[in-house]
Each structure stands twice: as C-alpha cells, then as structure tokens.
Specification:
alpha+beta
Length: about 160
C-alpha cells in the first residue's frame, strides 16, 4: 500500500536518489540539474508530497504557482514501483491541494497515458521554453484537470 504525506526536509536526500533512478530510466528530467535538491524545491513551490511504502520513498510531486494558477510539477515514481498507484496517488493529492494544470513533453508517453487515464484534458500544445541537450525544442502538452471527471477518484481508492 502507498501512503502519501507532506514532504519534509529530511526526505530530500531519498527523493534525489529516486529522481536519479528516474533520470537513468526515463531521461526525466532531461538535463540532470546541478542542484537536484534545489530543483525539487522550486522558488514558486506551494506544497510538496512524497509517496512511500515499506521500501521507503517511491514517488514525489510538488505544486507550483504560475501566474496565479496551481500546476503539478516534479511528479515522478520510482521505476520499480510503477503500476502500483504511486503516480495516481500523488496526482490525486496534487488535485486535492488545488492543482488544476500540468505540462508534459510529447516524448513522455507513460506520463501522458497516466494523465489521460485519470481524466486530465489536453488544452494546448506549444514549443517548450527550453531546449534539449541536442538543441531541439520539445513540444509541451498542456493539460487541465476536469472537475467533472471522476476518473481520478476511480483510479485511486480512498484510504480510510
């Protein structure tokens, strides 16, 4: 069973370790940050949560404020724990926390599958404001949570 709880400063080293595994497995983030702990704590962060099970931290998400809208950011799940509701649980918590928007690059097919399966609606595509290490500018897909969709509630049973 996965437990989602607020992230605390003592969690950061384990979160960096999980992020490193995700980077090796999925190339996320595409460019490894000079300061991974700082990358996990952006200046516009509103809240952060981790997912954990008996094996420790298995996922992470933050909410950031972008021009007054709350966006899902830094969402990742430890590669060996995908398919066990880690991403869904973190995404649900971000929605409970008020997040209504997210972006993802088109190459991230597994993340796109998660967002669409849980009821997020594609509202725009646009070139990213950043470039990949090879100089290409990826296409971002912009999603909005659908307040009328109960797909996320169906995907993650409520823990009592």
């Amino acid at each position: 069973m996965v437990l989602v709880r607020p992230r605390n400063p003592a969690d950061i080293p384990a979160c960096v370790e999980v992020l490193s595994e995700v980077h090796e497995s999925d190339d996320y983030p595409h460019r490894w940050p000079r300061d991974p702990a700082g990358w996990l704590t952006p200046e516009n962060m509103v809240a952060a949560w981790i997912a954990e099970n008996d094996n420790g931290i298995v996922g992470h998400v933050v909410i950031v404020d972008q021009l007054g809208a709350l966006w899902v950011s830094r969402l990742f799940a430890r590669p060996g724990h995908r398919g066990s509701l880690v991403g869904e649980s973190l995404l649900r918590q971000a929605c409970i926390g008020g997040a209504t928007m997210l972006d993802v690059i088109e190459q991230s097919s597994k993340a796109i599958e998660l967002y669409e399966r849980t009821g997020w609606t594609l509202v725009d595509t646009r070139p990213a404001a950043w470039t990949m290490s090879d100089g290409r500018r990826p296409v971002e897909r912009i999603y909005r949570s659908d307040p009328y969709s109960n797909q996320l509630a169906k995907a993650v049973p409520t823990q009592r």
